[in-house]
Design a protein that fits this description.
277 residues, alpha+beta, three-stranded antiparallel β-sheet, binds flavin-adenine dinucleotide
């Protein structure tokens, strides 16, 4: 959704250009209010919007569990522990808590990357941002409801079992705090209720909260730390990491295995974000 017809046309042009290189974007339509009503009868909106078949709903928690289960089938040992690095040299890196050494280490620690590296003389351009989502439990068949992206923060995301997720907030002043605070979701929920009034009859059954990692230019980065070819990092995935994370993981695996990467790593230069103090 966009605020004016011109912005809708501009977005349509951008989407059509991207479609050339991204065939997953299948169809793009401008949808008038009467067609919107057919697609979602509880919907109340009086302007055109853009509809696409592209996209999927990914549950981050389930994705993580599936990745770990998949990793185990390849013989990986998974250790659930908070770790820190003891020593870093060119041929091995020692992890303090399990007292083991590794020839290559990947730090995929999101917003907590600075905590792992600052003690070793690195400065890291990463800050935390708190995000909260509200879960509304409906008795609807949510497989029939489109995912809606209004202007602003409050996406309306149909999930399984009648659940609809609304959010998320972008809170820059809360550090690593993971407590829930419903007052931060008031505006987002009001927007959702205005667009889908029938939602207001159902309870908010749960609040979800997480911490995003942002670099000062909002770009992600990944690859080896400068002058340390056996220590890899990935961070700065911001609000797109469920989408870009799997791709970045595959790129790092290829770098470690000295295989050709799909993307040019120079476009995501770690040295711009991690420097020796
Ligand atoms: C509310 C919310 C909504 C979002 N919505 C979307 C969306 O719609 N689409 C999208 O693509 N992305 C979305 N994101 C962003 C996405 O979740 C992140 O970009 C992604 O999770 C980043 O992945 P990551 O692996 O880099 O970091 P994380 O997922 O943060 O994982 C880092 C892990 O490292 C662990 N860790 C840190 N330090 C240590 C240590 N010392 N020892 C051991 N473990 C450690 C942490 O506990 C954490 O589990 C959203 C995020 C939030 C918070």
């Amino acid at each position: 959704m966009k605020k004016t017809p011109k912005l809708i046309d501009d977005l349509m042009t951008i989407a059509q250009k991207r479609q050339v290189e991204a065939p997953l974007i299948q169809e793009i339509h401008k949808l008038s209010p009467s067609y919107q009503q057919v697609a979602f009868p509880d919907w109340t909106y009086s302007s055109d919007l853009i509809q696409t078949d592209a996209g999927a709903v990914v549950d981050g928690q389930v994705l993580c569990q599936d990745l770990l289960a998949g990793a185990r089938t390849f013989g990986l040992r998974v250790k659930n522990m908070k770790v820190s690095l003891d020593s870093i040299s060119d041929h091995e890196i020692t992890v303090k808590e399990d007292n083991e050494s590794y020839d290559t280490v990947v730090l995929a620690s999101g917003a907590w990357l600075p905590k792992l590296l600052t003690d070793h003389g690195f400065q890291v351009d990463i800050r935390p941002q708190k995000g909260q989502l509200a879960v509304i439990q409906t008795d609807w068949d949510t497989s029939q409801i489109p995912l809606i992206m209004p202007e602003g923060e409050g996406d309306i995301i149909p999930h399984l079992d009648g659940k609809i997720y609304i959010g998320a907030t972008h809170e820059d002043d809360q550090g690593y705090d993971l407590s829930t605070n419903p007052s931060q979701l008031t505006d987002i929920l009001s927007t959702a209720y205005a667009l889908v009034p029938a939602l207001a009859q159902f309870p908010v059954s749960e609040l979800k909260v997480g911490t995003r990692a942002y670099a000062s230019d909002y770009a992600p980065f990944y690859g080896p730390v400068p002058n340390q070819t056996n220590l890899f990092v990935a961070s700065g995935l911001g609000s797109s990491g469920l989408t870009t994370g799997p791709l970045i993981g595959r790129e790092i695996a290829r770098m470690i295995n000295k295989e050709t990467t799909a993307l040019d790593p120079n476009d995501y230069p770690v040295g711009n974000y991690i420097t020796r103090v």
